[in-house]
Specification:
The chain has a six-stranded mixed β-sheet with strand order 6-7-8-3-9-10, sandwiched between helices. It has eight helices and ten strands. Helix 3 packs across helix 4, helix 5 packs parallel to helix 6 and helix 7 packs across helix 8. Bound molecules: adenosine-5'-diphosphate and magnesium ion.
Length: about 260
């Protein structure tokens, strides 16, 4: 018998009916999602929606209660090493060693993953991101935006097909935030990366190719931004998001 996930072998990332609870607390109640090569897909949801839980399942840190995850055509349960080799992740919490230099942080990652020829690759990636002058700086000395760029470079060193970004812009000023979105969008299009960008900020998803709206473990809507406006009869994604998640605009925010 064919499983639904077998009918779309072209999806870089495919999640089918994924369920996860923490004890009695349900975090994901059977969600479906896919991302294709070259697509920038947003996962939009308020705090507690289940975004980080999904990323922890995708990265193999936790195991789902039920459902399936396919990464570049490989089932995460059947072939975890093959599947995870295709995945790059920037987690919500920074995982840089702040006392090490930028280059050491990246070399450490390469050593851990047995990557050859890493120094040249690291230096050219730093150059491409405009960080060539920071190679020998301690990670601690970098701005929040540049630290995130180093984490982005690290996530891409093994040339994954899929990039997961979990609330990567939290704590960044607006200029650094939009720069990071722009950098990741450019990588997505130039290298045909499949990108899943989790955020609670509506303004970050307006340019996404498609958007999934997650709340309390349930996928409330998905489609292109234009399709979501039509589905919800809304004028803006913010209105659609507030309507779907049962929130209201604060007074003074100009509700129509
Ligand atoms: N380690 C954990 N133990 C128990 N409950 C958790 C744990 N991690 C998350 N949760 C709960 O699961 C739900 C989803 O959380 P999370 O995936 O962190 O959402 P988001 O990343 O969208 O903010 C929330 O109700 C949260 O309290
Ligand atoms: Mg989170």
């Amino acid at each position: 018998m064919n499983h639904p996930s077998d009918t779309h072998p072209q999806h870089q990332l495919q999640v089918c009916d994924l369920v996860k609870s923490y004890g009695k607390v349900p975090a994901l109640k059977g969600i479906d999602l896919h991302v294709d090569a070259g697509e920038f897909v947003a996962l939009l949801g308020p705090n507690g929606a289940g975004k980080s839980t999904l990323f922890q399942l995708l990265s193999g840190l936790f195991v789902a209660d039920s459902g399936r995850i396919r990464i570049d055509g490989r089932d995460l349960r059947d072939d975890p090493i093959g599947a995870l080799a295709k995945l790059g992740i920037v987690f919500q919490q920074s995982t840089l060693d702040l006392d090490l230099s930028v280059r050491r942080n990246l070399l450490f990652h390469c050593d851990m993953h047995g990557m050859q020829g890493s120094r040249a690759r690291i230096d050219s990636a730093l150059q491409a991101m405009g960080l060539a002058d920071n190679t020998r700086s301690a990670a601690r000395a970098l701005s929040g935006g540049n630290r995130r760029k180093v984490e982005l470079i690290r996530a891409l060193l093994h040339e994954p097909a899929i990039l997961l970004m979990d609330e990567a812009t939290v704590g960044l000023d607006p200029a650094s935030r939009s720069e990071l979105v722009r950098d990741v969008r450019a990588l997505c299009k130039e290298q045909r990366l499949a990108v899943l960008w989790a955020t609670h900020l509506v303004e970050e998803v307006e340019q996404a190719d498609r958007v999934y709206i997650l709340d309390k473990g349930t996928m409330l809507a998905h489609g292109t931004p234009a399709e979501i406006l039509t589905q919800t009869a809304s004028d803006s994604l913010l209105d659609a998001f507030l309507q779907l998640t049962g929130q209201t605009r604060h007074s003074g925010e100009g509700a129509a």
